[in-house]
Specification:
290 residues; alpha/beta; 9 helices; 12 strands; 40% helix
């Protein structure tokens, strides 16, 4: 690794003295290391013209791979350090948009009050994307719903059950109702999520269980958009609570005869080794949401 860093420094400075000063090594040691690297590779990495040097065509080609490799190695070192020291790591967390305005802020606030030096790399996305990131080891944890898949005790921490509600415009005939049977929505135009999203699949299941297939007239991917369409009296919908909907001309009601709930929890890859910081976050969340 030292030889690669030496090569990178000389390639950038084009001067052995400057590179040696940056790296805090002697010039002879630097020169010896580069000669050894060139011997191992079998090609000259630099062209020496008098007292000046220029990177060779071989060096130009090699530099790109060296820089990519050093970035990966630096990331690996940081991850190893976080495995050893839970108080200095970074937790990569994917989460749903609606959870980002309800459950997540409180969890992060409590955790940061206790562990201020742990950093977070947050990614907002839908459940399917969160699970893809988890499967590809691009995040450590995801804050999703049990609609996503069946998790086991070894990789699922339930946090909270969230109620989902029916919504209609304040100008809709149902706007004076506080609790409505899902059957009462049979003939209503529906505003829903895109078909590939897990939330939409669950709403369709609830409707089919009640004996009908909803007439979906508009579809979107985010709650604010769907709520905006509902507030324009273009249809009704079943949505999770989302902070800020109160500002719209929209009415919320309970679904009386269907258990419209979702369980929100932390999930992680079953066969993955969690970093010490991620383990600490799971343990902290568990003890604070019992």
């Amino acid at each position: 690794m030292h030889q690669l860093r030496y090569f990178q420094a000389i390639a950038k400075t084009k001067n052995y003295n400057h590179a040696a000063n940056l790296l805090h090594v002697s010039q002879p040691a630097l020169t010896k290391a580069i000669h050894k690297l060139e011997a191992e590779l079998g090609v000259p990495l630099f062209n020496r013209i008098g007292r000046s040097i220029e990177i060779s065509v071989y060096g130009e080609k090699f530099l790109r791979f060296v820089e990519e490799s050093l970035l990966l190695l630096d990331r690996g070192v940081k991850e190893l350090q976080s495995l050893k020291d839970p108080l200095q790591g970074t937790i990569r967390l994917a989460f749903l948009q609606t959870i980002g305005t309800t459950i997540l802020p409180g969890i992060l606030r409590r955790f940061k009050e206790n562990y201020p030096d742990i950093q977070f790399d947050l990614q907002q996305c839908n459940s399917q994307r969160a699970l893809e990131l988890l499967e590809n080891n691009e995040v450590d944890l995801c804050l999703v719903t049990n609609f996503s898949r069946s998790f086991g005790e070894s990789n699922w921490l339930p946090i909270k059950k969230e109620q989902l509600y029916g919504y209609c415009s304040i100008n809709h005939p149902l706007s004076h109702e506080t609790s409505i049977s899902i059957q009462a929505l049979r003939d209503e135009p529906f505003i829903g999520y895109k078909d590939h999203l897990l939330m939409q699949k669950q709403v369709l299941k609830w409707c089919r269980d009640a004996g009908f297939t909803p007439n979906v007239v508009f579809q979107g991917t985010e709650v604010p958009t769907l709520a905006g369409l509902i507030s324009a009296n273009l249809g009704v919908g079943i949505l999770p609570y989302y902070s800020g909907l109160e500002a719209l001309p929209i009415h919320r009601f309970e679904i009386a005869d269907t258990n419209c709930q979702r369980e929100v929890g932390l999930a992680w890859k079953e066969d993955a080794a969690l970093s010490a910081s991620a383990k600490l976050f799971v343990e902290f969340t568990s003890s604070n949401y019992e």
